[in-house]
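Example (one chain per record):
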Amino acid sequence: MFFGSPGMGELLVVFVVVLLVFGSSRVPEFARMLGRAIREFKKIVNEVNTPDDPDATDDGPRSSRR
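Predicted structure:
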């Protein structure tokens, strides 16, 4: 189970493993692809969370009766 965020030691181990698996020439390409994927994910999340109509609210349909 994962308790908390990874520390500097864990990140260093992950970086070394990535370096060994992909090689030093492919790490920058891998980092660019990862950055693009994160940007696209954030863009999609923002589009889903932002209503198309700026006047739209989450109050639901309004009744004319009071």
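Caption: The helical segments are 8-22, 27-49.
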